[in-house]
Design goal:
This protein has 128 residues and is mainly α. The relative contact order is 0.14. The two termini are 24 Å apart. The chain has one domain. Helix 1 runs antiparallel to helix 2, helix 1 runs antiparallel to helix 4 and helix 2 packs parallel to helix 4. Helices cover 80% and strands 0% of the residues.
Length: 128
Amino acid sequence: MNTKTFLIWVWMSIYQGVVIIVLSISLFEQSFVRIVTITFTALVISELLNVVTTIHRMNCYIFLSILVTLLIYSISLLFLSNYLNTAEIDGDFAWKVALIVAVSWVPIFVVRFIRRKLAPTEEDKITH
C-alpha cells in the first residue's frame, strides 16, 4: 500500500460514512436505536459490496467469507437486540437501507469501473 492508495481508501471511507449517517438521519427520523440499526446494516452491506468490487477474481473462500459475514450479522441482530431495533425491520426499512447503500456505493463502483476500463492493470487484462 502506498500513500495514494491509503488516501483513496480514507476518502472512500469518509464519503460512505457521511452518506450513511446523513441519509439515515434524514430518511429515518425516529429514535436513535433505529438509526443505529440502519447505519449498522448499511455499513455491513456497503463493505461487502466494496469487497466484491475490489477483488479481481471471486473464489470459494471469498464467497464463503461473505456468507459467514452475513450469518454473523444476522446472529448479531438477535443477540444485540438492546442496541439494534430488529422489531421494525420491514419493507420500508429495506428500501430505505437499499437507497442509502446505493448512494454510498454506486458512485465508488462507477469510478472504479471507468478507471478499470480506461487504465486496466495487468491483472485486469489477464482476467478479461
